[in-house]
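explain this chain.
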Amino acid sequence: MADHLEASVTLPSEPASVSAARAHVAGTLLEWGLPADADMADTVRLIVSELATNAVQHTLGRSPTFTVALALDPDGRLRIEVTDAHPRFPKRLPAAVQQDNGRGMVIVRWLTAEHGGRLTVRPTREGGKTVSVELPWQVPAEPLPTAGRQEP
């Protein structure tokens, strides 16, 4: 397992920042050896999209920025954190059939559980909150090249 790795980006709380957060995370995961087409990469991008969207939509102007941080520990855990300045913790909203939004945290909880991870929310010293997801780091083994190789 690699040494401890960290990366973060702070973005303005505006809709365009959600795709910027997703792109930052995708690039970081690629640098850390996770192919862009791996299921784990899709999962992490979706989690970041949902958490960043929440940081933009639900802070009600009380958080001019939000931060997305990734950490890869030598023990094989990937930590994804989204921090904003709004003190209200995410709530699970009732799932009305006609409801177009409000399912982000349900998706994050489901993906986290499906991959054997852990979701926590904690207050920051500054009065905001950090939503943190820890997942087992699952980098697929690279297949051996077969072109030009002859069987004995």
